[in-house]
Write the structure tokens for this entry.
Amino acid sequence: MYVVESKGGAIVCMLLALLFLGTWPAVMTLLERRGRLPQHTYLDYSITNLLAAVIIALTFGELGSGTPNFFTQISHLSDNWTSVMFAMAGGIVLSLGNLSTQYAWAFVGLSVTEVITSSITVVIGTTLNYFLDDKINNAKILFPGVACFLIAVCLGSAVHSSNAADNRAKLATKFGDGTVTKDVEGGNTASEVKFGTADFLVQLEKRRAIKVFGKSTLIGLGITFFAGLCFSLFSPAFNLATNDQWHTLKKGVPKLVVYTAFFWFSVSCFILAIILNLTFLYRPVLNLPRSSIKAYLNDWNGRGWALLAGFLCGFGNGLQFMGGQAAGYAAADAVQALPLVSTFWGMLLFGEYRRSSRTTYGFLFSMLFMFIVAVAVLMASSGHRK
């Protein structure tokens, strides 16, 4: 198998993971804003997300002469089943987190959702990984970086609250009471309205799959914090699967290599996603329209983008774990700076924060600055696993 051993190689893996993991949420959000049901999108995404893990296992997991390789460990499942359970537990909480964020993006926006979930992930997950990794990361550098992420959570919540107030003011100016009870009469088409205007907000609401007008913003924030708690557990679970810090393996049984662990991690992620989304087809949440397997199979509108999102997320997670195995999973949590990428896509593709108040812009740039500082500090804490 191929093993990343140097700190430089680990950082390259982290940077590529950061790009991939920051881009796939933008693709998913784009499809929801075009009206595609999130159940359809997530089913497509789940297929290629698992396929990415299989590709990584069959390539990196089989390259070179190192042992044990992927196929060797797959054939000895009875020996390392406890580590497999840790890996699959990580996949389950990641699947729950990803599924939750798909709905949170509609309520609180791509940027704020990613900032809050990523910051919670770092504050909890990085702390757990630091102790699981036998403190190979420099604590004097690591924990100030964690504190920066915690500050970013607060700033992210402030951005959302300020931006929501801006949107209410725009709608109040146009409709009088701030609520939209009818379509814009004689209004512009979706392609003609300008980002950030009241007309834009109305046209977006008419097109999108998840309707958010009239719903409490606390719903979105609640979903977001739940997703963050789920994300904070998947990396420590994967760490336990590959390094066996709790000594659950019998003496002489090799630890799971990162590629084998990632395969089982992705299998459980796939199984849960399929079960939940097939259920949501017939019993949708948040007042989404009811669908069916037949309707899903016939829905080719945006399927290619959904499949691409699955590949990006799958390869991003794989690269994060490859880097974490070399430099410590606590340092690898630097990829949780993905909101820097997601915010770029949110502003470029979706016009987030266009025509917002100076207060919102102040919170936004403070949040992004704190994230940049946090990422730099967290990567600087990288250690080297013996």
User: Anything to note?
Assistant: The chain has a mean pLDDT of 82. The chain is about 70% helix and 0% strand. Residues 7-166+218-380 form one domain. The radius of gyration is 21 Å.
